[in-house]
Amino acid sequence: MYAQMIKTARSGLKSHAEMSDQERDFQDRIDRDIKIEPRDWMPDDYRATLIRQIGQHAHSEVVGQLPEGNWITRAPTLERKAILLAKVQDEAGHGLYLYAAAETLGVSRDELIGLLHEGRMKYSSIFNYPTLNWADIGAVGWLVDGAAIINQVALQRTSYGPYSRAMVRICKEESFHARQGYHAIMKMAFGTPQQKKMAQNAIDRLWFPALMMFGPSDAESVHSEQSMAWKIKIKSNDELRQQFVDQTVPQIEYLGLDLPDPGIKWNDTTGHHDFTDPDWQEFFDVLKGNGPCNTDRMRDRVKAWENGKWVRDGLMAHASKKATSQAAAE
Ligand code: FAQ
Question: Alpha carbon 301 to chain centroid distance?
Answer without folding.
Answer: 16
